[in-house]
């Protein structure tokens, strides 16, 4: 690591700490030449392989922006979007690969988005799962209803009858 002040090619680590929810390491360094201190931040890189074959660095902001479009008009806050982007990044990093296909990122968004807002989930899923007909939407809605009934009304017969007669 070159000193940013005198460009000496060496430095000594004075202190190391994890930061940003453990995904990076902050190091205080000291130059043996000029004795000035500076900070470096180390992160494991995660690259996105796009359909064209080009690669670019992973960006939580791009995740939030893409999901924000699906959440337009829905009761979803910026904090919710930031948390969703963090969950997606953690999921992708836990896969252990340094390069992730862009399509896989879209699929990784679906689970947390379903928990956040079902309508936004359907909007997003219609793109990433290539819905081609009304039947595709109906099938996705049927799955969501079944999951909700399983989660919310496991013994409530009246709630499921009312939903099925619509």
Automatic annotation (TrEMBL):
Keyword presence, Cell membrane: no
Alphabetical list of InterPro entries matching this protein: ATP-cone_dom (IPR005144), NrdR-like_N (IPR055173), RNR_NrdR-like (IPR003796)
All copies of domain ATP-cone, residue ranges: 46-136
Function: Negatively regulates transcription of bacterial ribonucleotide reductase nrd genes and operons by binding to NrdR-boxes.
Stored NCBIfam families: transcriptional regulator NrdR
Protein name: Transcriptional repressor NrdR
Similarity comment: Belongs to the NrdR family.
Keywords, in A-Z order: ATP-binding, DNA-binding, Metal-binding, Nucleotide-binding, Repressor, Transcription, Transcription regulation, Zinc, Zinc-finger
Zinc finger (unnamed): 3-34
Cofactor note: Binds 1 zinc ion.
UniProt superkingdom: Bacteria
Cofactor(s) essential for the protein: Zn(2+)
Recorded coiled-coil stretches: none
Metal-binding found in the keyword field: yes
Pfam family, one: Zn_ribbon_NrdR
Gene Ontology MF: a single term: zinc ion binding
GO terms of biological process kind: negative regulation of DNA-templated transcription
Residues covered by region (Disordered): 147-166
């Amino acid at each position: 690591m070159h000193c940013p002040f005198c460009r000496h090619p060496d430095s000594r680590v004075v202190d190391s700490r994890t930061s940003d929810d453990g995904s990076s390491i902050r190091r205080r360094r000291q130059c043996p030449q000029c004795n000035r201190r500076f900070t470096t931040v180390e992160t494991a890189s995660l690259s996105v392989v796009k359909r064209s074959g080009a690669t670019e660095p992973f960006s939580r902001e791009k995740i939030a922006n893409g999901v924000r479009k699906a959440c337009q008009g829905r009761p979803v806050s910026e904090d919710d979007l930031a948390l969703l982007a963090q969950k997606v990044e953690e999921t992708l990093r836990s896969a252990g690969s340094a390069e992730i296909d862009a399509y896989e990122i879209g699929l990784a968004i679906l689970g947390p988005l379903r928990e956040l807002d079902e309508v936004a989930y359907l909007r997003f899923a219609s793109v990433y799962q290539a819905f081609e007909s009304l039947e595709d939407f109906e099938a996705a809605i049927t799955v969501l209803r079944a999951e909700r009934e399983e989660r919310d009304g496991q013994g409530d017969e009246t709630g499921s009858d009312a939903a099925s007669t619509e």
